[in-house]
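Morning!

This is the sequence you dropped in the shared folder:
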Amino acid sequence: MQKFTGTGVALVTPFHKQGTIDFGSLEKLLNYTVSNKVDYLVLMGTTGEAVTLSKDEKFALLDFVKEHLNGRIPLILGMGGYNTQEVINNLQTTDLKGVDAILSVTPYYNKPSQRGLFLHYKNIASASPLPVILYNVPGRTSVNMTAETTLQLANEVNGIIGIKEASGNMGQIMDIINHKPNDFLVISGDDAMTLPLIAAGAQGVISVTANAYPSAFSRMVNEALAGKFDEARKLHYLLLPFMQVLFADGSPGGIKAALDNMKIVSNNLRLPVVKVGKAIQNQINAAIAELKEKNIDC
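The structure's back. Tokens below.
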């Protein structure tokens, strides 16, 4: 559990203006996040626009990150989908040396039942050479994995070590925390809910905000995990306006707009995701300026 406790970063995938992967900016982002004391990285998740990448691009991206990360901190690879067998095939054909765990989103679009979700993950975990972290994000997938299904997987299926919970349902998440096995991780999938979820017993977060503010966000998480909630609360409320505007016009549009302002990654995305509107861009810029005034710059 310790390896994935604390702050994970849901890395963006930088692109050049013409749409190809910008590996130079990716190296800059890797060094920026790692040097600012995040605990692990998550590659090819939602924030990384993974569904827009070709298979060859995914292989190239993974190879590049493994080489440049060089084991400095753990790496989680996003690998999910609505076709169970295809996910299994990808697990068997991807070079997973240098990867520490798999993050697998619930099947989207085809709206499986809870029994279907259980069997989907049971088969993936059986085929995976690495530990599997579940990812429940009904706002994107149109299916919610209930606490009962999550707990059944946690108790009955070897190889499933935790869940990134982004349902926004505090009652559901607390039910998981209250009844889970001791060695099962509950990880926040919502930046703004991280502090209350840690107070309820979660072990950390996979964060979008930490692309831009890895040091400040990690400090907030670490203070909360240490039970220093007065200090954690101060950082939470400093970062909250930025976190709120970051998702106001879609993600990863917001975080790429912020990273462009900070001259870390250019503001290029792949359709159907587009840049945030001018009004939101102005609000993001204002939130960054306000944090800088308060000596929060990373």
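Headline: Residues 147 and 279 are 38 Å apart (CA to CA).

More detail when I'm at my desk.
O.
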